[in-house]
Amino acid sequence: MSSRRVQVFDHYQYGPRGVLVPGDRFRVRGGPVYVTDDGKRIPMHERGVFVFRAYCVRGAAKWIEAYRPDGGGIIILPVGKSHRSRTVPNLRCRPYRVAGKVTDRVIKKRPGRRQTGGASS
After folding, report:
1. For 53-85, what is each residue's pLDDT tens digit?
2. Residue 24 β-bridge partners
3. What is the pLDDT of residue 2?
4. What's the angle, vertex CA 67, arms to CA 62 and CA 73, rounded to 5?
5. 18 against 118, higher pLDDT
6. pTM score, two decimals?
7. Is there a contact between 101 and 24 (Cβ–Cβ < 8 Å)?
């Protein structure tokens, strides 16, 4: 049997114009879901902002290696095809989808505008 080597890429194209390169901050959606015997879906996914490190391919397996901007270890985000887990019967291994890059825009409040709340005084 031939051994499959891991191919590591320094970019990941997630759309027609979207490309992640090392150091880019991004968000994801999707991810694994556990379905109980009653049919209740329990999300088992990672959420928040990640920093892109690499995109890896080994055969049919494809994943993004990323880390949290505030520290911590490497997070593996599968982006291949959806499948059922062989070891955990009710686990649906859905792929992550890159929702987009996170920019460091600062939203300024406009002077002279009043905040309208739900309660009137």
Report:
1. 999 999 989 999 999 998 889 999 999 899 999
2. none
3. 56
4. 105
5. 18
6. 0.78
7. yes
What b/e readout covers 38-71, taking b as 16+ CB neighbours within 10 angstroms?
eeeeeeeeeeeebbbbbbbbeeeebbbbbeeeee
Q: Which tokens in the block code for residue 104?
A: 């460091």
DSSP the chain: -PPPPPEEES-EE-SSS-EE-TT-EEEEEE--EEE-TTS-EEE----SEEEEEEEEEETTEEEEEEE-TT---EEEEE-S--EE-SSSTTEEEPPEEEEEE-----PPPPTTPPPP-SS--
First to last CA, the chain: 76
Take residue 87 and report the two structure tokens written for it: 């070891």
CA distance 101 to 113: 30
